């Protein structure tokens, strides 16, 4: 990748700040898409008096957008749906963490007709267990989605279960002013990357800001190294439990990482990502591999100074075109009370109108639908959208691409163990493999 | 809890004795009026149902589930039994387990050896009616009023490596919460800080109840202050001492909130309770595996409960 041409402007408050790590996902509110055909629903016979009347006139939405900004945007989107279709949306907002932790019980109990979720293993898992409904017919009316997004919305049976709304990429962020001051160039190969890190060290900077107190940020580093060294398909198979963690391929990921660790900020296990991002903001660190939400730790004036590049190529045969870009969106419960309205709502969420409302009210989101009017994007957003658009494959992030029990009870402690003691890679990988075999039984 | 109605039953005996005296050996039963019997039955049944429903059934279910690989999804009849595999997994291939047991024991030792005696010491000092003892009392008890989650946050401000007060004041760069050799001690200081206040208040209440004439008698007999405490006051306070001991053991077994707030019980802060939560609560839903951990914790607790009950019962018999 070349250096950025224009000044990037990035609006903060992408992610509602929170101590809890998983809350990064609450990031993007919203809805996106190309919509269209609303109102022409199946219940045309129902009168034109809009509002809170009979049950055929409303639909319920379970939302994890508990932070003020995304919550507000979601209200505007549902208002838009009401205007266009006359159907009232009863939004049931639950704290983001609570929503995620209770998702099993929620979906098996009496869930709302439509609920917020994200693409990845868990989405396919719910689809396979029959806890979510097939919405292929909604997809047949949607347009503006690239194949990558459609693939990310498809269950194991080849049907669609998910409407993507928003996403954010993971990349290496830096401050342009710092790089100009020292004359750094964006690295495109691993050698250039390590050389740059060494130079930063000589210049008195921490080359790579790093934090893993909450356990998940290190997954981003593992993911990108794995994608660069072994490619996307291996990532998918490894996450699905089909590949052995004791294989040389995984060991090479850890080996490469161990080589990079001296360039990382030390004592990362006691640091939150917010603190690491502030070290970048305070010009103490040279770069930071994180999601787009890193901008949250920068003031509005500093947004212009923030830029990023995708993690450099390691193996020329693999290239540097795959990346993590978690997608947030919507799914339909297994037995919605108002199925017709639920499908209409999903169609609206996937449509252009919803995406435009989203962009207009919260210009700091990347919308999944390419039909949306992205004129309001900042330079950094445009660049991020281009990066993801040019990606050959989009991974969802480790803890979204694999079983949640494996990610949280095995991988997090294992990666923290690795950061503590990067030497014992053999022992670490065999420990992971043993636990994996116990968890991936079916 | 369940012995409450029994006490009530005993008390219910005397008053009717004056009115209905049919004599004979079965007198005690007949002495109870119908209302009494209804009340007693209710007082036995309600707690019994509550205890069974909320304590024993869940405990039994936990033990049962620990033999399965249930993931929290799907009907109960699809649960697959896997025998003792969860237990062998816990012991053999689950790296956080051994540290968790060690940390729980360490926690118990630290509370027992340091925090509890220190709390008792403070109580004795405050009992001396020093000037401003109310203030000290409030200050020391304040942490108990705060929730542990809040305490975790307060200490985070002190302990943060880059932005924390301690490192800022001393110019050090110790990674208090991140270094797995240090963080358990850092957290135990925070936990002990709270425990001291709790024990102090309990013990202070006990000390206020000690008959002052005992101390005066000891003083008249020429016993020194410390001798009077250890030989007279301390033995008199035996009931309180047992409560303090039990509280200490319970606190160390259920230690959870603080490490959970700090880093969800990972990286040097493993505790069994945190591991149970990691596995069972939330999206992970390794319910079978987590239940095995919970059962192990139950067994450990049972050891202490048995010792406690045995002691109490032996005393009652004497």
Automatic annotation (TrEMBL), chain B:
Its primary localisation, in coarse terms, equals: membrane
Q: Which UniProt keywords apply?
A: Cell membrane, Membrane, Transmembrane, Transmembrane helix, Transport
Task: List, alphabetically, the SUPFAM superfamilies matched.
Answer: MetI-like (SSF161098)
The record describes its membrane topology as: Multi-pass membrane protein
Q: Which organism is it from?
A: Micromonospora noduli
Give the location in the cell. Answer: Cell membrane
Q: Which residues form the ABC transmembrane type-1 domain?
A: 101-308
The cross-references to PROSITE patterns, in alphabetical order and at most eight, read:
ABC_TM1
Protein name according to UniProt: ABC transporter permease protein
Which InterPro entries did the record assign? ABC_transporter_permease, MetI-like, MetI-like_sf
**Is the keyword rRNA processing assigned to this protein?**
no
- Tell me its family: Belongs to the binding-protein-dependent transport system permease family.
Chain ranges passing through the membrane? 38-57, 105-126, 138-158, 184-207, 228-250, 287-310
């Amino acid at each position: 990748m070349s250096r950025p041409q224009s000044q990037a402007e990035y609006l903060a408050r992408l992610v509602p700040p929170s101590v809890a790590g998983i809350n990064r996902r609450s990031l993007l509110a919203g809805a996106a898409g190309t919509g269209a055909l609303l109102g022409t629903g199946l219940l045309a016979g129902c009168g034109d008096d809009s509002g809170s009347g009979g049950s055929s006139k409303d639909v319920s939405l379970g939302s994890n957008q508990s932070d003020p900004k995304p919550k507000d945007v979601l209200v505007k989107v549902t208002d838009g749906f009401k205007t266009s279709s006359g159907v009232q949306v009863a939004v049931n907002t639950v704290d983001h963490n609570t929503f995620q932790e209770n998702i099993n019980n929620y979906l098996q109990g009496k869930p709302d007709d439509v609920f917020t979720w994200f693409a990845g293993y868990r989405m396919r898992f719910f689809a396979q267990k029959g806890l979510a409904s097939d919405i292929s017919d909604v997809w047949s009316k949607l347009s503006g989605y690239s194949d990558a997004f459609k693939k990310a919305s498809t269950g194991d049976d080849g049907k669609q279960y998910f409407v993507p709304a928003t996403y954010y990429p993971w990349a290496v962020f830096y401050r342009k002013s710092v790089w100009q001051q020292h004359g750094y160039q964006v690295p495109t190969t691993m050698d250039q990357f390590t050389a740059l890190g060494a130079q930063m060290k000589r210049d008195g900077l921490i080359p790579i800001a790093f934090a893993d107190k909450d356990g998940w940020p290190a997954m981003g580093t593992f993911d990108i190294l794995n994608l660069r060294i072994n490619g996307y398909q291996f990532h998918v198979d490894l996450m699905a439990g089909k590949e052995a963690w004791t294989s040389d391929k995984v060991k090479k990921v850890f080996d490469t990482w161990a080589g990079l660790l001296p360039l990382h900020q030390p004592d990362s296990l006691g640091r939150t990502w917010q603190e690491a991002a502030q070290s970048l903001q305070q010009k103490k660190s040279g770069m930071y591999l994180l999601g787009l939400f890193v901008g949250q730790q920068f003031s509005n004036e500093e947004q212009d100074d923030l830029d990023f590049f995708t993690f450099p190529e390691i193996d020329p045969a693999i290239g540097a075109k795959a990346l993590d870009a978690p997608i947030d969106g919507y799914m339909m419960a297994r037995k919605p009370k108002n199925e017709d309205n639920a499908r209409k709502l999903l169609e609206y969420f996937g449509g252009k109108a919803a995406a435009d409302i989203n962009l207009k009210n919260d210009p700091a989101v990347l919308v999944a639908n390419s039909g949306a009017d992205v004129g309001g994007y900042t330079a950094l957003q445009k660049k991020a959208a281009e990066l993801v658009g040019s990606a050959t494959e989009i991974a969802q992030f480790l803890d979204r691409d694999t079983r949640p029990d494996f990610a949280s009870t095995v991988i997090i402690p294992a990666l923290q163990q690795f950061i503590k003691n990067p030497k014992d890679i053999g022992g670490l990988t065999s420990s992971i493999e043993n636990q994996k075999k116990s968890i991936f039984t079916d | 809890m369940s012995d409450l109605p029994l006490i009530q039953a005993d008390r219910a005996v005397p008053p009717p004795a004056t009115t209905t005296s049919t004599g004979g050996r079965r007198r005690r039963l007949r002495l109870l009026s119908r209302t009494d019997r209804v009340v007693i039955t209710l007082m036995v049944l309600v707690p019994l149902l509550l205890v069974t429903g909320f304590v024993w059934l869940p405990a039994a279910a936990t033990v049962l589930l620990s033999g399965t690989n249930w993931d929290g999804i799907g009907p109960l009849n699809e649960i697959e039994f896997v025998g003792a595999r969860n237990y062998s997994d816990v012991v053999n291939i689950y790296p956080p387990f051994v540290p968790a047991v060690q940390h729980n024991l360490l926690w118990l030792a630290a509370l027992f050896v340091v925090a509890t005696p220190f709390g008792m010491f403070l109580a004795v000092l405050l009992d001396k009616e020093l000037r401003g003892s109310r203030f000290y009392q409030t200050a020391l008890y304040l942490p108990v009023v705060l929730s542990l989650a809040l305490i975790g946050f307060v200490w985070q401000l002190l302990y943060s490596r880059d932005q924390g007060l301690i490192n800022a004041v001393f110019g050090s760069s110790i990674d208090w919460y991140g270094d797995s050799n240090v963080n358990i001690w850092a957290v135990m200081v925070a936990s002990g800080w709270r425990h001291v206040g709790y024990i102090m208040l309990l013990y202070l209440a006990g000390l206020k109840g000690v008959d002052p004439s005992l101390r005066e008698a000891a003083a008249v007999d020429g016993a020194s202050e410390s001798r009077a405490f250890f030989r007279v006051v301390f033995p008199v306070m035996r009931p309180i001492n047992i409560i303090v001991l039990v509280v200490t053991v319970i606190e160390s077994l259920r230690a959870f909130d603080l490490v959970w707030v700090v880093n969800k019980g990972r990286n040097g802060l493993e505790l069994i309770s945190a591991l149970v939560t990691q596995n069972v609560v939330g999206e992970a839903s390794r319910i079978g595996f987590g239940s095995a951990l919970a059962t192990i914790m139950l067994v450990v607790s049972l050891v202490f409960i048995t010792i406690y009950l045995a002691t109490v019962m032996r005393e009652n018999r004497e």
